[in-house]
Amino acid sequence: MSTPTAGAALGNQLRAGTVAKVGSTKRIQELNGMLHANRPNVDITRARAYTKVYRATEGMPSLMRRYKASAEVYRTLTDNVYDYEQLVGWPTKRIRGANFAIELHAHWLADDLPNLRDRTYDPFEITDEDYKELEEDLLPYWKDKTMAVQWGHYVSKEEWNRGQFGGVSDVSNYLCANGSHFIPAWTDVIQHGFVKYYEKAKALLAALDPNDPASIDKKIFYTGIIEVLEAIRDWGERMSAACARKAAQEKDPTRKQELENMAAMMQRVPWGPATSFYDACETAWAVCFFLFVEGAGPSITWGRFDQYMYPYYKADIEKGILTPEKAMELIEELYIRVTSNVWFQSTQMAYIFGGYYRYPHLDVGGLDENGKDASNELSYLCLEAANQLKTTQPVMAVRLWDGSPEELIRKGCEMIQDGQANPGFFNDKAAMKMALGKGCTMEEARDWTIVGCVQPGPGGGTTDGSPDAGYVNMGKMIEFVLHNGVDPSTGKLMGLQTGDPREFKNIDEFKDALKKQILHHYELVATGYKVMQSVHMTKYPVIFASMVTKGCVESGKSVQHGGAKYSTAGMYITGAANMADSIVAIEKCVFEDKDITMDQLIKALDNNFEGEERMRQLLLNKPEKFGNDKEHVDGIYREMMHFIADHVQTWPDARGGRF
Predict the structure, then answer these.
(1) Helices of type H across 57-183
(2) Among candidates 275, 301, 306, which has minimal Cα distance to 288?
(3) How far apart are CA 494 and CA 487, in angstroms?
(4) How far apart are CA 564 and CA 630, in angstroms?
(5) Residue 178 in this model has a pLDDT that exceeds 50
(6) For 262, what's the count of Cα atoms within 13 Å in the CB-facing half-sphere?
(7) Which helix (H) or strand (E) holds 52?
């Protein structure tokens, strides 16, 4: 094994520090302590199951192999039951484990494995036995079969390098994920349980017309849902039995009763409808970790928890079988479990997205479907649970509109003032416009939720989980215009040749060149992502995620095949404010006031302003800056953003949706 670096040693010291036993009750404090007493670790249960099935199914259709492998994973999940917990089920044998998708990660893991335990960013523990099995058996089978390797067969070497963190534009997010940023149909699955999807798939399978060519793939899809759900049903029965065994051995009468309650609950949910707030929490947790285990990528979004859980909370409060304190305890346990789901990624990605964080959002407040304030008692309990626990996940999102209660805003502000960096505040009006732009109804737009970092999308589990198809670096676009398409860091022609900028007569000519440069690179991203979508369709569809996404079961298509109600592939503008500031700086200092020439500017930039501190200060301080209510620079920002959006949003993707 490699020698730990200084950074890794420091990280190990921090991780070995004081255990964070905080929370609203003794139970939660102990569970939080258990979470923080465990270091992130690798679990190869899923990798072993997938390899076993794929070796045994050579020659079968890809979708069939996927669902058989997924079912095998669910059949082999651990049945551990820990002290203090009330909810049931874990995705890995140890707390804070990563049951990673070997069919998506093997290509980089084959190289990263020797450094995995002591790398500087996001190291993982792994047993010697599992290390050896990965190194000698599992990785050799998969390393040439991953999504990134398959994509590489369809693109040029130049496209491969650019797509893999070229610094100009990239489509790297989905090279190691066959989807992410999923918003399950929370209300539907909690209200009806998995049995609804099981019976629906069986009925639709029986109704297929064998003479219709489209029925061939649909038959595999529905058969897959049935087999996967049967495996999940078996998992629920195993967990119920595990709770019952532990109850039989328990001496403390209070804990014994809890374990018996857990055993009984697992006979009801997640297979059947939730009948209480307790049941609903268990189903929500099961959906969350089944998605993680399936390999659906980061950001399984909790959405509007205070909305879809409120009917159960309210009914139980009125029945006298639940108190606000007990409800918050269950919410805190959910947060601990969500935090246990760590993101497993390459050394390079860990450097960019360090912290094991998987971007699960939980939204509170905002508007209801009728345009009225939607906040309720659960909104405050969700915030207070995060306030008590101080866990890194989930990130809380407070939706704001003109009628948001002052006390809800104040609660969020107090948490931020306390230094928690949680919650975030999001504007309903702006987010609704973005959701409507994806084609949804006004009611669905009012139900919008945050997915990933800050992306608003239609609520209700209606979208396909691909909001960040690719990125374009606006700073690099400026550089390309200033160097006629040449990348000054490499000397290679990487962009469009838009002319010698020294001959531009005004800022409009500069902006025209920049617009051409930007669209060219978005076209490259779109092309690369369409290829990726086609590989997703043929080799890497997700069965469980498709089942809990509206439109897929009805259409007989997976998310990867365009089965979701709304298929959209999001494009990112990286450095938009910097772009606007750069345009205005060039406009002011080069074209209007003529403080410097274009040639002087380019030479200074190429030398990182060495010996040109006066020029650097001039460019920094003389022009207006975006974000200060300055109409001109804000107008430039709007002009460029609308130009990009107006073009990109007309482009079709490979699933029948659009960018």
Answers:
(1) 62-75, 102-112, 128-133, 139-142, 147-152, 157-163
(2) 301
(3) 6
(4) 41
(5) yes
(6) 29
(7) helix 45-56
pTM over 0.90: yes
**pLDDT band with cut points at 50, 70 and 90 for residue 227:** very high
Q: Is 573 helix (H, G, I), strand (E, B) or coil?
A: strand
Residue 16, class by beta-carbon neighbours within 10 Å (0-12 exposed, 13-18 middle, 19+ buried)? exposed
> Which token pair is 189?
């699955």
* Residue 420 CB contacts under 8 Å (≥ 6 apart), including other chains: 386, 387, 390
Q: How far apart are CA 514 and CA 482, in angstroms?
A: 9
CB-CB contact of 326 with 266 (8 Å)? no
Cβ–Cβ < 8 Å for 533, 567: no
Phi first, then psi, for residue 368 (nearest 5°) are -95, -175
In this predicted model, what pLDDT tens digit does every residue of 490-504 receive, in sequence order?
A: 999 999 999 999 999
Q: Which amino acid is at 220?
A: I
C-beta separation of 502 from 598 below 8 A: yes
Dihedral (Cα; 72, 74, 80, 81), 10-degree rounding: -160
- What ranges in 540-630 are assigned the alpha helix state H? 543-547, 552-555, 576-586, 598-606, 613-621
